[in-house]
Amino acid sequence: MDKLKQYVVFTVLGSLAVLAGGWFLLVSPKRSEAADLRTQSAGQVTANAQLETQLTVLKAQAKDLPKQQAKLAAVAAKIPDNPALPALIRSLTTAAKAAGVELVSVTPSQPTALAAAPAAAVAPVAPTAPKTGAVAAAPVAAASAGQLQQIQLTLNVAGGYFQVEQFVAALENLPRSMRLSNLVLNPGSNPVKPGAGSTEDGKTLTTTITGAVFMAANRPAATAVTVPVQPAAGPVTTAKK
Questions:
Q1: Does the residue 228 lie in any domain?
Q2: Which CATH number belongs to the domain containing residue 183 in this structure?
Q3: Is the pTM of this model over 0.85?
Q4: Could you write out the DSSP letters of every residue in 192-203?
Q5: Could you give the number of structural domains in the chain?
């Protein structure tokens, strides 16, 4: 009987030891792993909710994106990132023809920072050797990205008073943003078409117009903006207790 009791006791103790070892080696790690998975699942749900909120905001903003891009394009056309003198000359020539005046010359200065001191006065073009659309070189000074600069302009035109007035009004509607600072009218003949008028009759005026156009030096190129696609939620593994 004593041996039988000992055998039973050892069997019970062994079974308890196996159960305890199984608990610590198998069940307890799985419970910890299940708790970690539940925590990860809750974190993923929160992250997905935040992404959905951000996506909703972006979609709402995307509705106005074409309008904002159109506004930026309009500003970029009026204030380009380079002198763009050929396009400016074409616009001035078109405005002069529409107003009925002769665009004798266009003299630009070197681009300077808008806050800097005004550029030196530009020497007037000799009336004895006019050249329509004459343009002096205008190198771009070193500038920081997107810095607003101005190019001083001296325009010489010839025509009647009302034609000159119409030309000045047309300058306000140029595709390029332009600011006028001075206007000088003098009686005189058209240097390009001498027979068009004379100094005595006062019908033809030689006009000097000074002003400035603007540019945003080294402006970064526009970046296309797209609305992100809602990301698919990753698989979430759960474990029972």
A1: no
A2: 3.30.70.60
A3: no
A4: SSGGG--TTT--
A5: 2
